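Hello everyone,

My group is preparing for a crystallization screen and wants a predicted model to guide construct design. The compound we'll soak is LARABZUK. Before spending weeks at the bench, it would help to have a computed complex in hand. I've included the protein sequence and the ligand's SMILES below. Output in structure-token form would be ideal because that's what our pipeline reads.
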Amino acid sequence: MSGTPPSPSVPRLELLPAVDVRDGQAVRLVHGESGSETGYGSPLEAALAWQRAGAEWLHLVDLDAAFGTGDNRDLVAGITDAMDIKVELSGGIRDDASLTAALATGCTRVNLGTAALETPEWAAKAIAEYGDRIAIGLDVRGTTLRGRGWTSEGGDLWETLARLDAEGCARYVVTDIAKDGTLQGPNLELLKSVCAATDRPVVASGGVSSLADLRAIASLVPVGVEGAIIGKALYAKAFTLEEALAEVAR
Ligand SMILES: O=C(O)c1ccccc1NCC(=O)[C@H](O)[C@H](O)COP(=O)(O)O
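Reply:
Good plan to model first. Here are the tokens for the complex, ready for your pipeline.
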């Protein structure tokens, strides 16, 4: 037989609709700033709506735990329990107690952010122990990382990425804070640069505003983008989740 062998198929971009919880309500923030909330009602109803629409993943954030203004731990555990789909949990997971509680919800994986910046040895231990169940959130302004609900400075993106790669981190969730909750489109250059610097999968977060943005993120699957988190665009009804899923299935 002769001819060119078929190219291996490129995986489909995974979509992770977001439910960010503040004071028991589903909200979206602008630039992740506390006090910039727009409320969207029951977080459980929002999560169930995304599941009914065909989501394979839910990105569930406890903003109070992230900001240190309390927590929604029981609510978040109840939502995770009610889901038949994969759940990525984020917000305030920084020590053994919060990590054990988060993993015990039955979520598929957790995002560590602040811990990777402030207690790197603890984060490295969590990566070594739980492997694929740990993702690291790289939340950046420019190329400077932010922690504690994005309020504190956390060092250089590239140095931290190299360290986490060496420690065996399975995946990164990359957010450009300047884009988050703004409907201004994702930072594709940042995503490309991170993908060029690591061989680990990258989940894009922040700024998605349209189906065209999803197509643009999907064009980065061959270089290492695995998924895209969608928050504000779904709540603002810029498009439906069904339309988004159909777009990335083409
Ligand atoms: O994820 C966190 O820990 C977090 C902490 C502090 C502020 C915001 C945080 N997450 C926000 C999200 O994960 C958003 O849901 C996501 O970036 C969606 O953004 P967008 O599509 O722009 O609404």
